[in-house]
Amino acid sequence: MDADISGMLIFSIYLNVMPNLTLRDMAKALGLSVSTVSKALRDSYEIGAETKKRVLDYAQANHYFPNRMAKSLKEGKSGSVGVVICSIDNNFVSRMLDGIDSACTKAGYDLIIMQSKESLSQEKSCIRQLEARGVEGVLISPSSETVDFAHLSDVRAMGMPVVLFDRIGDRFGSYQVGIDNRDGAFRATQHLIANGYKRIAMLNIGPGIHFAMQRSRGYADALEEHGIPYRDEYVHVCGPLAGEALKGAVTDAIRSLLALPEPPDALFTATDQLSTFSLRALHERGCRIPEDMALIGFCNTELAPILTPPLSTVYQPAFEIGRIAAEKLIGLITGKEHPDHYETVMLPIRLDVRESSRRKASASA
Length: 365
Hints:
12 strands; 365 residues; 14% strand; Rossmann fold
């Protein structure tokens, strides 16, 4: 992860608005001076840790946050934009954040970046925290658990613009920026078929995640177009999980595929991490790529050309996805974009064909 991206991470405690509670009320309840309470809320070095904890605990329990936050939320002029992503631990996400930062810096906006870790409850918490900080708008790549977008509808109903990026779909009406997920999966699977592979497996995440469903559809459509039967035993759903749990699920899936009486001769992986974890799992099992199993997947790692073997990928324009999504949000904030005339921007993918999916040796020329 780039240092400038990591430096943008800001984590905060959510304190809701309760305008009837004042600093004076808090000071009286805690037996402290108004000055002491104010300094504790500002994390002043003049106040001891124990007193700060008392004040912050009371503030949180009584849903209070400083008036400067309430003022910025009311006026909508905090000069900051909130970004909610699933996880920052992969190259694709950091490239999108780079694009977002480029557009926001140019327009004079600061970023507050938060991670949902593929959890709907944590995503909702992120949104509440961003509200509390008075952001002027929210960019969000929804978690894998997010199938109900009521929390985003509520935020927008209060006048805060929301733009979806990367993980787009038809369940929430808003400006959205991403790719044609069905087309990317279709082209990747078709590439394997054209290179002589017929027993093609797929690893995906889901179920119920719109972009993952579209990638599954593209895989199935390519098989059908070429008269290749869809085989349930060749399809594994790994998740929704993250980190070590996802790595373990991929390892189990690869083990199951290789143990089949008729194992697949090629594998399509539907996400960035599924691709790199699969490459590792195949190596660990002593599988030769592409001789024993060819591999192509969605993956934006800059290391793809120097992996062993060089990895064929479905490349997504991550920087442009982030940049355009941020520009749309800034347009909504400044009134240049109409809040009710939603637009979905679909950017083209690119197949980067490398050694991992070269033509099958037994295939006819």
